[in-house]
Design goal:
By secondary structure, the protein is mainly beta. The chain has one helix and 14 strands, in the order βββββββββββαβββ.
């Protein structure tokens, strides 16, 4: 006996409701889920990154960045959290223990964004130094080697251009950069 396919479709419909989370004392700059969707991370100008369990919406951890945190990213396996601390640069934390594993300094006092490449092999940091925007790319494995990782690539903006955001392109072969004057590179 063959049953119609629609007999086997189960559709759960729940109304969208706002969720109010507390944990920061200054503006929240980014909200990010991990790959599995079971953890939610928020970063703020108050110098902390809060971690919440999404099923029960309870805060399960606080990472002390001690600087305004503008951006975060997570490894696909949810093992590490990468944070852009404004005056320090890139900081890498172990998500399970909350311990800071690595701190990679960049010049300047305004690290704005951090992003992991597809496959978590490279880290990109967008920052400003002497009124110019830069993007530096580091090898993730070198970050854990203990010494200062060498810069794999560096992109410098022109005099009249300020980088605002950047994302990895397909196969990590390109980087797409947005600017304040409406152009993309």
């Amino acid at each position: 006996m063959k049953l119609p396919a629609e007999k086997f479709i189960i559709f759960w419909s729940t109304p969208m409701q706002p969720v109010y989370l507390t944990g920061h004392s200054r503006p929240v700059n980014q909200v990010k889920h991990n790959y599995d969707g079971d953890l939610l991370f928020t970063c703020s100008d108050d110098g902390t990154v809060c971690m919440y369990e999404t099923l029960q919406l309870v805060r399960t951890g606080v990472f002390k960045i001690n600087e305004a945190c503008r951006s975060i990213d997570l490894t696909k396996d949810s093992k590490y959290m990468i944070a852009a601390a404004t005056t320090v640069g890139v900081q890498i934390y172990d998500i399970k223990t909350g311990e800071r594993k690595v701190s990679v300094q960049v010049p300047g006092v305004n690290a704005k964004m951090v992003s992991l490449s597809f496959g978590d092999k490279m880290v990109m940091c967008l920052y400003e130094f002497e009124k110019r925007s830069y993007i530096r790319i580091f090898d993730m494995q070198e970050c854990f080697a203990g010494n200062t990782p060498k810069v794999e690539y560096e992109i410098q903006a022109g005099q009249d251009i300020v980088f605002t955001k950047a994302v990895w392109g397909p196969k990590n072969e390109t980087i797409i950069i947005s600017t304040t004057n409406g152009k993309l590179f």
